[in-house]
Amino acid sequence: MSDIAYVNGKFLDINDAKVSVKDRGLLFGDGVYEVAGVIEGVLIDNLAHLKRLERSLHSIELELPLTINKLIEVQKEIIMLNSLKEGTLYLHVTRGESQNREFEFPEAPRASIVMFVQHKKIFHLTQDKLRAKVMTLPDLRWKRRDIKSIALLAQVLAKQTAHQNGCDEVWMYEDNFVTEGGSSNAFIIKDNKLISRKNNETILSGITRQAVLKLVQQESLLFDERPFTIEEAYHSSEAFYTSASVFVMPVISIDGKIIGDGNPGPLTLKLRNLYENFAKSFINQKNNN
Ligand code: PDD
Which spans are transmembrane here (predicted)? Predict the structure, then answer.
Protein backbone atom coordinates (compact mmCIF):
# COMPACT_ATOMS: atom_id res chain seq x y z
CA MET A 1 0.00 0.00 0.00
CA SER A 2 1.41 3.40 -0.88
CA ASP A 3 1.72 6.30 1.51
CA ILE A 4 -0.85 9.04 1.90
CA ALA A 5 0.10 12.69 1.45
CA TYR A 6 -1.83 15.81 2.40
CA VAL A 7 -2.23 18.56 -0.20
CA ASN A 8 -4.38 21.61 0.48
CA GLY A 9 -7.16 19.98 2.43
CA LYS A 10 -7.05 16.54 0.78
CA PHE A 11 -5.52 13.24 1.85
CA LEU A 12 -4.33 11.51 -1.33
CA ASP A 13 -2.39 8.47 -2.43
CA ILE A 14 1.18 9.84 -2.67
CA ASN A 15 1.26 8.96 -6.40
CA ASP A 16 -1.80 11.12 -7.03
CA ALA A 17 -0.72 14.01 -4.80
CA LYS A 18 0.22 16.89 -7.11
CA VAL A 19 0.77 20.64 -7.01
CA SER A 20 0.46 23.13 -9.86
CA VAL A 21 3.43 23.70 -12.21
CA LYS A 22 2.86 27.37 -11.33
CA ASP A 23 3.34 26.82 -7.63
CA ARG A 24 5.73 29.52 -6.42
CA GLY A 25 7.54 26.94 -4.34
CA LEU A 26 8.46 25.15 -7.54
CA LEU A 27 9.22 28.33 -9.52
CA PHE A 28 11.03 30.45 -6.92
CA GLY A 29 11.55 28.33 -3.82
CA ASP A 30 9.03 30.77 -2.34
CA GLY A 31 8.06 28.84 0.76
CA VAL A 32 9.16 27.47 4.12
CA TYR A 33 9.20 24.01 5.67
CA GLU A 34 9.54 21.92 8.80
CA VAL A 35 10.71 18.39 9.52
CA ALA A 36 9.76 16.85 12.86
CA GLY A 37 10.79 13.49 14.24
CA VAL A 38 8.24 10.78 15.04
CA ILE A 39 8.72 7.84 17.38
CA GLU A 40 6.04 5.34 18.32
CA GLY A 41 3.70 7.43 16.19
CA VAL A 42 4.28 10.53 18.34
CA LEU A 43 5.72 13.85 17.13
CA ILE A 44 8.79 14.97 19.05
CA ASP A 45 8.89 18.59 20.24
CA ASN A 46 6.19 19.48 17.73
CA LEU A 47 5.11 22.74 19.35
CA ALA A 48 8.64 24.09 19.05
CA HIS A 49 8.65 23.11 15.34
CA LEU A 50 5.29 24.83 14.81
CA LYS A 51 6.52 27.95 16.56
CA ARG A 52 9.52 28.06 14.22
CA LEU A 53 7.19 27.50 11.26
CA GLU A 54 5.14 30.51 12.32
CA ARG A 55 8.31 32.57 12.64
CA SER A 56 9.55 31.48 9.19
CA LEU A 57 6.13 32.28 7.68
CA HIS A 58 6.07 35.69 9.35
CA SER A 59 9.57 36.42 8.01
CA ILE A 60 8.40 35.89 4.43
CA GLU A 61 5.02 37.62 4.97
CA LEU A 62 2.98 34.50 4.43
CA GLU A 63 0.01 33.32 6.43
CA LEU A 64 -0.68 29.75 7.42
CA PRO A 65 -3.68 28.61 5.35
CA LEU A 66 -5.23 26.85 8.35
CA THR A 67 -5.23 27.31 12.12
CA ILE A 68 -2.47 25.76 14.21
CA ASN A 69 -5.01 23.46 15.88
CA LYS A 70 -6.26 22.25 12.49
CA LEU A 71 -2.66 21.77 11.37
CA ILE A 72 -1.95 19.60 14.42
CA GLU A 73 -5.09 17.59 13.65
CA VAL A 74 -3.87 17.00 10.08
CA GLN A 75 -0.42 16.01 11.37
CA LYS A 76 -1.94 13.39 13.66
CA GLU A 77 -4.22 12.15 10.90
CA ILE A 78 -1.42 11.70 8.39
CA ILE A 79 0.70 9.80 10.93
CA MET A 80 -2.26 7.53 11.57
CA LEU A 81 -3.18 7.04 7.90
CA ASN A 82 0.40 6.04 7.12
CA SER A 83 0.77 3.90 10.27
CA LEU A 84 3.99 5.81 10.86
CA LYS A 85 5.81 4.37 13.84
CA GLU A 86 9.26 5.89 13.42
CA GLY A 87 10.52 8.51 10.97
CA THR A 88 9.81 12.10 10.10
CA LEU A 89 6.91 14.28 9.11
CA TYR A 90 7.69 16.80 6.38
CA LEU A 91 5.50 19.82 5.74
CA HIS A 92 5.88 22.91 3.63
CA VAL A 93 3.89 26.03 2.97
CA THR A 94 4.43 27.94 -0.27
CA ARG A 95 2.95 31.18 -1.59
CA GLY A 96 0.72 29.12 -3.87
CA GLU A 97 0.14 29.68 -7.55
CA SER A 98 1.65 32.44 -9.61
CA GLN A 99 -0.32 33.66 -12.66
CA ASN A 100 2.51 34.63 -15.00
CA ARG A 101 5.62 33.78 -13.06
CA GLU A 102 5.69 37.33 -11.71
CA PHE A 103 8.30 37.72 -8.96
CA GLU A 104 6.15 40.04 -6.84
CA PHE A 105 3.59 38.51 -4.49
CA PRO A 106 0.20 37.83 -6.08
CA GLU A 107 -2.54 40.30 -5.03
CA ALA A 108 -4.38 37.66 -3.02
CA PRO A 109 -1.99 34.76 -2.51
CA ARG A 110 -3.50 31.40 -1.62
CA ALA A 111 -0.86 29.58 0.32
CA SER A 112 -0.35 25.95 -0.56
CA ILE A 113 0.41 23.31 2.06
CA VAL A 114 1.87 19.87 1.54
CA MET A 115 2.62 17.18 4.09
CA PHE A 116 4.01 13.65 3.90
CA VAL A 117 5.85 11.19 6.08
CA GLN A 118 9.13 9.31 5.77
CA HIS A 119 9.52 5.91 7.41
CA LYS A 120 13.06 5.62 8.76
CA LYS A 121 14.99 4.84 11.88
CA ILE A 122 15.88 7.92 13.91
CA PHE A 123 15.76 6.51 17.44
CA HIS A 124 16.50 2.80 17.24
CA LEU A 125 19.84 3.24 15.51
CA THR A 126 22.47 0.53 15.74
CA GLN A 127 25.98 1.49 16.92
CA ASP A 128 27.38 1.30 13.38
CA LYS A 129 24.97 4.07 12.32
CA LEU A 130 26.21 6.39 15.06
CA ARG A 131 29.57 7.14 13.41
CA ALA A 132 29.26 10.04 11.01
CA LYS A 133 31.98 11.27 8.71
CA VAL A 134 31.91 14.97 7.90
CA MET A 135 33.39 16.97 5.04
CA THR A 136 33.81 20.75 5.17
CA LEU A 137 32.86 23.00 2.24
CA PRO A 138 32.30 26.75 1.78
CA ASP A 139 28.87 28.01 2.81
CA LEU A 140 27.36 29.34 -0.41
CA ARG A 141 23.89 30.18 0.98
CA TRP A 142 21.96 33.42 1.27
CA LYS A 143 22.18 35.53 4.42
CA ARG A 144 18.83 34.67 6.11
CA ARG A 145 19.56 31.12 7.19
CA ASP A 146 17.34 31.57 10.24
CA ILE A 147 14.36 31.20 7.86
CA LYS A 148 13.69 27.53 7.09
CA SER A 149 13.41 28.19 3.37
CA ILE A 150 12.59 25.41 0.92
CA ALA A 151 15.26 26.86 -1.42
CA LEU A 152 17.99 24.35 -0.61
CA LEU A 153 20.19 24.21 -3.72
CA ALA A 154 23.41 25.14 -1.89
CA GLN A 155 22.80 22.36 0.65
CA VAL A 156 21.81 19.87 -2.06
CA LEU A 157 25.09 20.46 -3.91
CA ALA A 158 27.20 20.48 -0.76
CA LYS A 159 25.60 17.31 0.62
CA GLN A 160 26.03 15.60 -2.75
CA THR A 161 29.76 16.45 -2.78
CA ALA A 162 30.08 15.14 0.79
CA HIS A 163 28.22 11.98 -0.20
CA GLN A 164 30.47 11.46 -3.25
CA ASN A 165 33.42 11.72 -0.88
CA GLY A 166 32.10 8.98 1.37
CA CYS A 167 30.79 11.38 4.03
CA ASP A 168 27.45 11.51 5.82
CA GLU A 169 27.16 15.26 6.34
CA VAL A 170 28.77 18.51 5.23
CA TRP A 171 29.84 21.23 7.65
CA MET A 172 29.70 24.52 5.82
CA TYR A 173 32.12 27.33 6.66
CA GLU A 174 32.38 31.05 6.17
CA ASP A 175 35.59 33.05 6.83
CA ASN A 176 37.07 29.76 8.04
CA PHE A 177 34.41 29.43 10.80
CA VAL A 178 31.92 26.57 10.67
CA THR A 179 28.36 27.84 10.27
CA GLU A 180 26.32 24.62 10.46
CA GLY A 181 25.68 21.26 8.83
CA GLY A 182 23.96 20.87 5.46
CA SER A 183 20.82 19.85 7.36
CA SER A 184 21.94 19.97 10.99
CA ASN A 185 23.63 22.10 13.66
CA ALA A 186 27.32 21.54 14.40
CA PHE A 187 29.00 21.10 17.81
CA ILE A 188 32.51 20.32 19.04
CA ILE A 189 33.82 19.48 22.50
CA LYS A 190 37.19 20.72 23.75
CA ASP A 191 38.50 20.52 27.32
CA ASN A 192 35.12 19.09 28.38
CA LYS A 193 33.42 22.21 27.09
CA LEU A 194 30.71 22.16 24.44
CA ILE A 195 31.19 24.74 21.68
CA SER A 196 28.52 25.79 19.19
CA ARG A 197 27.84 28.90 17.18
CA LYS A 198 25.39 31.43 18.59
CA ASN A 199 21.93 31.61 17.08
CA ASN A 200 21.55 34.46 14.67
CA GLU A 201 20.80 34.94 10.98
CA THR A 202 23.89 32.91 9.99
CA ILE A 203 22.32 29.58 11.06
CA LEU A 204 18.98 27.90 11.53
CA SER A 205 17.80 27.86 15.12
CA GLY A 206 17.64 24.07 15.37
CA ILE A 207 14.86 22.68 17.54
CA THR A 208 17.07 19.74 18.53
CA ARG A 209 19.90 22.16 19.29
CA GLN A 210 17.62 24.19 21.58
CA ALA A 211 16.58 21.05 23.46
CA VAL A 212 20.17 19.81 23.75
CA LEU A 213 21.28 23.17 25.14
CA LYS A 214 18.56 23.02 27.81
CA LEU A 215 19.79 19.54 28.77
CA VAL A 216 23.35 20.87 28.89
CA GLN A 217 22.21 23.56 31.34
CA GLN A 218 20.28 21.08 33.47
CA GLU A 219 23.34 18.86 33.70
CA SER A 220 25.57 21.88 34.49
CA LEU A 221 27.88 20.98 31.60
CA LEU A 222 30.20 23.70 30.36
CA PHE A 223 29.07 25.48 27.23
CA ASP A 224 30.68 28.14 25.11
CA GLU A 225 28.30 29.66 22.57
CA ARG A 226 30.73 30.90 19.95
CA PRO A 227 31.84 30.08 16.42
CA PHE A 228 34.68 27.62 15.94
CA THR A 229 37.18 27.27 13.10
CA ILE A 230 37.70 24.19 10.95
CA GLU A 231 41.17 23.85 12.47
CA GLU A 232 39.64 23.83 15.97
CA ALA A 233 37.17 21.18 14.87
CA TYR A 234 40.02 18.99 13.57
CA HIS A 235 41.62 19.14 17.02
CA SER A 236 38.47 18.74 19.07
CA SER A 237 38.12 15.77 21.44
CA GLU A 238 34.52 15.10 20.32
CA ALA A 239 32.17 16.38 17.66
CA PHE A 240 28.53 15.84 16.79
CA TYR A 241 25.60 17.33 14.93
CA THR A 242 21.91 17.58 15.75
CA SER A 243 18.65 17.56 13.82
CA ALA A 244 15.10 16.28 14.11
CA SER A 245 15.97 13.36 11.84
CA VAL A 246 19.21 12.19 13.50
CA PHE A 247 18.81 13.53 17.08
CA VAL A 248 22.45 13.72 18.33
CA MET A 249 24.82 12.22 15.76
CA PRO A 250 28.44 11.50 16.83
CA VAL A 251 31.12 12.57 14.33
CA ILE A 252 34.18 10.33 14.04
CA SER A 253 36.10 12.21 11.34
CA ILE A 254 36.20 15.62 9.69
CA ASP A 255 37.88 15.89 6.26
CA GLY A 256 39.44 12.49 6.93
CA LYS A 257 40.99 13.65 10.22
CA ILE A 258 40.05 11.36 13.08
CA ILE A 259 38.25 13.00 15.98
CA GLY A 260 39.26 11.78 19.45
CA ASP A 261 40.00 8.07 19.25
CA GLY A 262 37.79 7.61 16.18
CA ASN A 263 34.77 6.48 18.20
CA PRO A 264 31.72 8.40 19.42
CA GLY A 265 32.85 10.44 22.43
CA PRO A 266 31.51 9.84 25.97
CA LEU A 267 29.97 13.31 26.39
CA THR A 268 28.33 13.04 22.97
CA LEU A 269 26.82 9.67 23.88
CA LYS A 270 25.64 11.09 27.18
CA LEU A 271 23.92 13.94 25.34
CA ARG A 272 22.36 11.54 22.86
CA ASN A 273 21.06 9.49 25.75
CA LEU A 274 19.65 12.58 27.50
CA TYR A 275 18.01 13.71 24.26
CA GLU A 276 16.51 10.24 23.72
CA ASN A 277 14.96 10.44 27.18
CA PHE A 278 13.65 13.91 26.39
CA ALA A 279 12.13 12.53 23.15
CA LYS A 280 10.58 9.62 25.06
CA SER A 281 8.88 12.10 27.40
CA PHE A 282 6.57 13.08 24.51
CA ILE A 283 5.47 9.45 24.17
CA ASN A 284 4.88 9.19 27.93
CA GLN A 285 2.88 12.43 27.84
CA LYS A 286 0.67 11.00 25.10
CA ASN A 287 0.19 7.71 26.92
CA ASN A 288 -0.80 9.54 30.09
CA ASN A 289 -3.41 11.68 28.33
N1 PDD B 1 17.01 20.08 8.61
N2 PDD B 1 20.41 23.53 10.13
C3 PDD B 1 19.89 23.27 8.92
C4 PDD B 1 20.43 24.00 7.74
C5 PDD B 1 18.84 22.33 8.78
O6 PDD B 1 18.31 22.09 7.56
C7 PDD B 1 18.38 21.64 9.93
C8 PDD B 1 17.27 20.64 9.85
C9 PDD B 1 18.97 21.94 11.17
C10 PDD B 1 18.52 21.26 12.44
O11 PDD B 1 17.25 21.74 12.85
P12 PDD B 1 16.26 20.82 13.69
O13 PDD B 1 17.01 20.40 14.90
O14 PDD B 1 15.15 21.72 14.00
O15 PDD B 1 15.91 19.64 12.83
C16 PDD B 1 19.96 22.89 11.23
C17 PDD B 1 15.94 19.13 8.42
C18 PDD B 1 16.02 17.94 9.33
C19 PDD B 1 15.87 18.76 6.96
O20 PDD B 1 16.04 19.65 6.15
O21 PDD B 1 15.61 17.60 6.62
Answer: none
